[in-house]
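Lab notebook: predicted structure, single chain.

Context: the supervisor wants predicted structures on file for every construct in the current expression panel, including those that have not yet been purified. This is the next one on the list. No modifications to the sequence; it matches the entry in the shared construct table.
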Amino acid sequence: MAQARGRPTGRETLVRKLMIGSLIALMAIGLAACSGSGDDPAAVEAQRKADMYDIDTIEKRFHQATTNQDIEQMMTLWAPSATLTVGLGETATGLDEIRSFWEDTSETFKEENYWVSDHPAYKVEITVNGDRGTLHFECHYIDANTEEIAAVTVADLDVARVDGAWLITNFVAGTTELEP
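Prediction complete. Output recorded below exactly as produced.
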């Protein structure tokens, strides 16, 4: 029997259905792969809060280290290739130079200074975006012997998750005025 012109045969119809079905299956697999649990808004928010907490811990441990003049604790906060900039462009690069700055130059680590680091929590600012973030805080160093303010500084940090831990990658210190 002759087939009407322009009408697909049964075989052509079957091939089309298989092609369309295959395309739909591929699209479904692609969408499923892209919509893992990472897209769950509650999970994303929980991870963001956990990261912000971990970044805030850097600030707390930094102030503990300066108050206690604990160089070992201080050095746990830094990524291996981190930079520390103080003053007019004086930059220490890498763990050895950063350690040297704290031990040899920083007033907070000088043996004759017993300064307590007061860090106003309401002045802390944290951002997080994936495995990177920023941290801003002030340090009010109070001389424990005289009970007077010995120094006031501000710090702007870039932080990153390195091997699962949040560490300082870039630290820029500056001066600030005491304000409420």
